[in-house]
Amino acid sequence: MEVYFYCQNCNEKITIDQLALLNEGKCPKCGTIEGFSTAPKSENDTFESLTVINDTELLEKSFQD
Q1: pTM above 0.70, yes or no
Q2: CA 2, CA 35: separation in Å to the nearest integer?
């Protein structure tokens, strides 16, 4: 069974072998570095509401509570 990954920007479908060969992690179709998921973007609603914070913000929030 082939595993496919989908660009989280343009939804381009690539194989795991293609993923391993990417130049700097950029999508071969759109050139972004938004990342890849095993679920198509349309099925992955968590990316729409996901909040990304860096380590400093996480530590600040941990010590403020």
Answers
A1: no
A2: 19
